[in-house]
Design goal:
single chain, 1028 residues, alpha+beta, Calcium-transporting ATPase, cytoplasmic transduction domain A, 6 domains, 9-stranded mixed beta sheet, 31 helices, flat
């Protein structure tokens, strides 16, 4: 490169670069080097020349220190100077158009060229690792070539240069998502930052001011203090709930912040312990058992290194690729860090994850928004009442309302009615203001509190110690799931079976007691002995067989293991699926041979069989054909058929002929019924795995999944390469997705959510973490799943049983329906009370059910009754309904119908009783008010029964299973009688005789009749409309 002083800058003459020799191989070249690393250097030289052309074109119109250069396009000539054919020498010559033309380029062009080359190089390295492209890795020069490209040493690591390390961190920073700080004051601000709280606070201030001006300092502040108490409740209860949520799911916070895990790296020839967030590309990391892989990289050296992220997890020179998030489960070794942060496979997929709101949370938020709107309207009414009361109080002092004297009589009567409503009797708390405030508190916080209790109860009920939830809403969201995506290794254990059919001595038996004890004991020994003689770990199917045998033999299995000596153990070929054990009891000279295996294999080894009475019969040709037909029938029912043979012999070796057939067992997949139940509940199950299509199809059929046509089976590559429109068209039809990558699973989940599905993703590996987080409910099965997968999931099912997943789904649906029942009950009580009090206040100026009584009703009715409804067990018809859609509201049309009709009935009958009750029953006002209150409470108690079934008429079905319901009903009636007694003693309320109590019960019981009539009419109309 030549420098020119005229410009005072750094330039180079293009002619000095005009003869470049690019050599690849060639034994006759003295300057060539063989191997992939030299080919890479050849590419770098070409890139340098290319960058020179780019720089010259970029600067052709710039005047650099007074020199303007506009070169014509250069020409390139190549010639083959190959020697003997062993290599190829290519001469690249740049031919300038004129010897006088020179190009001056700024010196930063070279830096930009190096930077561009470095980025291209790093991109290629990252691509090779992500694609697990072993051929490209070898062409690059292996791990050594990567180390050279990353400017590191495989033995000593990076130079301990802070400037270089800082530059590497800036090149690709660690992906870090810090959780928002939700401390005390943060939650307090979120709770208080609402229009409702602000307006209520304004109400409290005005109430205190108006009250003091009207009544004086001594009693004027009472009403304002009541509103302030309501504000305290509205603020403190949500704060406690939010804190409880944060305490309930502490593990979920681990993924929302950088996990400061310590790793050991080699820098400057020595070992250092640093945080995982300080690892940079080019680091040499030392891994031990239990360590987490801090980044994507390559295996350098080690001993028996195994990871938990794949089934084929042994890491060696043939499988050197290691990915962020995996955990070392065995061995030790060194790795070269290639990419970190968002450049890793895990980071790239996580960047595509959209953390959408929980569908149930969205529904509850919509309902809460409606409640907030109602609360704001009620608060505005309270403000208007306070203002009008203050104005009317001033006019009352002059005993005249001048503005109304000349008005028409109708308007004056209307204004007088308003005056009666808002005028506060001296020395008493204003009825309307306090009542509206009480309604606000009851609706705004009563509903969320009871929903929280319901979710806590059903989470405990659903998990039963077999699972752990890391999201408070996860279990109830499972009740709304429409699609479950699962790998064949996640809960679909094909060997997890249980005994379904027993065939002994020519007939099927459902009750083993009908078989001779001798035959049962021989059969159970035939089951247990071959299993107990095995030294390898038992399969889940063998565990099931041993469990069934232990139920029949009890503690005799332990005695059998202690008293018997194993002489020989033999396992048949893989295709024959069987094993035999030769054993001898202590003190006996006769050996016993026991064989277990596939029914067809063992049947061919048998020559006789036991009858149910214990007699031995010969298997002739006709009987053998009959046995073969029995085996075929059992297999036709998707049962795994196992046969057991037995023989006593004097020989010391196992015999494979002349056995006695002890019996046949038909084993069914323990999860198959749950799969079928899920499908019957309207849930689609999609089998998504990296296995080939034929294997997944057979697994799907064995699991009970229906594959209607060839379009239901797709390859991950076809789905991945389709257009967005094409994927959206095929996503509902997919039953099996074979040969799929983790990114395909993530794409499938996103498409399903976009179509409106609520998706549950069952995964186990680290590379499935993005799909698990993207799904509405992420689930990991068993302790075999990786740590990162478990931390990303909402539910961890420790026993790995698909049956547990169905149980959680059933409890989730039950919890959702029970919440709907409570909402119906709560709204019925509130609307009925508001109607009664508004009508009676307008007409009489007072209310038959005071605020204190309403609070008592909410306590003894909503709390015990609400808990009774929330704990109602699931019904058989529950799982026959379609899942709740994400766009559905918790308040259905059927619920509004029930609420409106019951509230109208209660308001109509009790207001009528307020008008005519004294005359009809010849009672006093006190007795009438007491009967109205008691009737109102009993209407809610009888309405508990109506709320148990939102649509069906039979409200008593299954009520015997809910003991809490009967306890709540009896307790509420006792508390009502106790309240009446206490009110009579301390407040002078009236006592009721038995006839009056019976009349109150009659008013409450009529709600049953109304509910039955409404549901019968509605069902009749619906049936007629459906038929037509």
């Amino acid at each position: 490169m030549s420098r020119e002083s005229s410009g005072g800058g750094d330039h180079f003459d293009l002619e000095s670069q005009s003869h470049l020799l690019v050599k690849d191989g060639g034994d006759n070249s003295t300057t060539s080097t063989s191997g992939p690393s030299h080919r890479w250097r050849s590419i770098i030289i070409i890139l340098h020349v290319r960058q020179a052309f780019i720089s010259s074109a970029r600067n052709k119109s710039l005047a650099v220190d007074g020199i303007a250069v506009v070169p014509p396009p250069p020409s390139i000539a190549t010639s083959n100077t190959g020697g003997d054919g062993d290599g190829l020498n290519v001469e690249l010559e740049i031919i300038p158009t004129s010897p006088e033309v020179s190009l001056d380029v700024q010196s930063d062009g070279a830096d930009e060229s190096n930077k561009c080359n470095k980025e291209l190089q790093n991109a290629e390295i990252t691509r090779i690792v992500k694609a697990k492209d072993l051929n490209s890795l070898h062409e690059f020069g292996g791990v050594q070539g990567f180390a050279e490209a990353l400017d590191t040493d495989l033995e000593n690591g990076l130079a301990n240069d802070e400037d270089d390390l800082c530059c590497r961190r800036l090149t690709c920073p660690q992906s870090e998502t810090k959780a928002p700080q939700e401390g005390f004051f943060h939650i307090l601000w979120n709770v208080c930052n609402k229009y409702l709280i602000f307006l209520l606070l304004l109400c409290a201030v005005l109430s205190i001011v108006f009250g003091i001006l009207e009544e004086g300092l001594h009693t004027g502040w009472y009403e304002g203090a009541f509103v302030i108490c309501a504000i305290i409740v509205l603020v403190s209860v949500p704060m406690i709930r939010e804190y409880w949520y944060s305490w309930y799911q502490p593990r979920r916070k681990k993924l929302s912040k950088t996990r400061e895990i310590a790793v050991h790296v080699f820098r400057g020839g020595s070992q250092h312990q640093i945080s995982i967030s300080n690892v940079v590309s080019g680091d040499i990391v030392w891994l031990n058992k239990g360590d987490q892989i801090p980044a994507d990289g390559l295996f350098i050296s080690g001993e028996s290194l195994k990871l938990d992220d794949e089934l084929e997890s042994t890491i060696d020179d043939q499988n050197p690729f290691m990915f962020h998030g995996a955990k070392v489960i065995n061995g030790k070794g060194k790795m070269l860090v290639v990419s970190i942060g968002k450049d890793t496979v895990w980071g790239e997929m996580m960047s595509n994850v959209i953390n959408a709101s929980n569908p149930l949370q969205v529904q509850l938020d919509q309902l809460n928004n409606c409640i907030q709107i109602i609360g704001v309207l009620i608060t505005i009414i309270i403000l208007v009442v306070l203002f009008l009361r203050f104005e009317f109080s001033k006019g009352s002092a002059a005993s005249v309302i001048p503005d109304l004297k000349a008005k028409p009589a109708a308007i004056k009567e209307f204004i007088d009615a308003i005056y009666k409503i808002v005028k506060k009797p001296k020395g008493k708390t204003d009825l309307l203001t306090s009542s509206l405030t009480m309604i606000l508190v009851g609706i705004a916080e009563g509903l969320p509190l009871m929903v929280t209790l319901a979710l806590y109860y059903w989470n405990k009920k659903a998990l039963l110690g077999k699972a752990t939830t890391q999201d408070f809403l996860a279990c109830i969201t499972m009740g709304s799931v429409t699609t479950i995506c699962t790998d064949k290794t996640c809960g679909l254990n094909l060997n997890q079976r249980e005994v379904d059919m027993l065939y002994v001595s020519g007939q099927f038996f459902n009750n083993e007691s009908a078989i001779a004890p001798k035959v049962i004991e021989a059969l159970c020994k035939g089951i247990a002995t071959p299993i107990l003689g095995l030294e390898r770990p038992l399969s889940s199917m063998e565990d099931s067989l041993l469990y069934w045998a232990s139920l029949k033999l009890g503690p005799k299995l332990d005695i059998l293991k202690q008293e018997c000596k194993i002489v020989e153990v033999k396992e048949l070929n893989f295709d024959e699926e069987g094993c035999g054990v030769l054993m001898r009891k202590d003190g006996e000279s006769v050996n016993s041979s026991y064989w277990k295996g596939s029914a067809s294999t063992i049947l061919a080894m048998c020559s006789s069989y036991y009858s149910s009475e214990g007699a031995m019969n010969v298997i002739d040709e006709q009987q053998r054909v009959f046995f073969e037909q029995v085996i075929a029938d059992m297999q036709g029912k998707h049962l795994k058929t196992i046969a057991f043979g037995y023989k006593q012999t004097d020989r010391a070796t196992l015999e494979e002929t002349g056995l006695i057939l002890l019996g046949l067992l038909g084993l069914k997949n323990s999860f198959r019924k749950s799969m079928e139940d899920c499908i019957g509940a309207g849930v689609n199950i999609k089998l998504v795995s990296g296995c080939d299509a034929s294997e997944l199809e057979s697994i799907a059929l064995e699991c009970g999944l229906n594959i209607p046509n060839s379009d239901s089976v797709v390859l991950g590559e076809n789905f991945r390469n389709s257009t967005h429109k094409g994927r959206m068209e095929m996503v509902d039809q997919i039953c099996v997705m074979a040969s799929s990558l983790p990114s395909d699973k993530l794409l499938l989940v996103k498409c399903l959510k976009e179509k409106g599905h609520i998706v549950a993703m069952v995964g186990a590996r680290t590379d499935e973490t993005p799909a698990i987080k993207e799904a509405n409910v992420g689930i990991t099965m068993g302790s075999g799943s990786t740590e990162m997968a478990r931390e990303s999931s909402n539910i961890i099912i420790w026993d790995g049983d698909f049956n547990s997943l169905f149980t959680i789904m059933k409890c989730g649906r039950c919890a959702y329906e029970n919440v709907q029942k409570f909402i119906q009950l709560e709204f019925t009580v509130t609307i009925a009370w508001v109607l009664i009090n508004i009508i009676t206040t307008i007409c009489f100026g007072d209310v038959p059910i005071t605020t204190i009584q309403y609070f008592y009703v909410c306590f003894i009715v909503a709390v015990p009754g609400g808990l009774a409804l929330l704990m109602d067990p699931p019904t058989k018809t529950l799982m026959k309904k379609s899942p709740i859609r994400s766009i559905d509201s918790p308040m259905t049309r059927t619920m509004w119908r029930n609420i409106v009709l019951q509230a109208l009935y209660q308001a109509a009958i009790l207001v009528t009783f307020r008008f005519e009750g004294q005359a009809v029953l010849d009672t006093t006002q006190k007795v009438s008010n007491a009967m109205i209150f008691n009737s109102f409470v009993l209407c809610q108690v009888f309405n508990w029964f109506n709320a148990r079934e939102l649509e069906r008429k039979n409200v008593f079905k299954g009520i015997h299973r809910n003991c809490w319901f009967w306890m709540a009903m009896v307790g509420t009636i006792v508390l009502l009688a106790l309240y009446t007694k206490i009110a009579n003693i301390f407040a002078g309320s009236a006592r009721l005789n038995p006839e009056q109590w019976a009349f109150c019960f009659l008013i409450g019981a009529v709600s049953w009749v109304i509910d039955w009539a409404v549901k019968s009419t509605s069902n009749f109309i619906a049936d007629r409309f459906h038929r037509s």
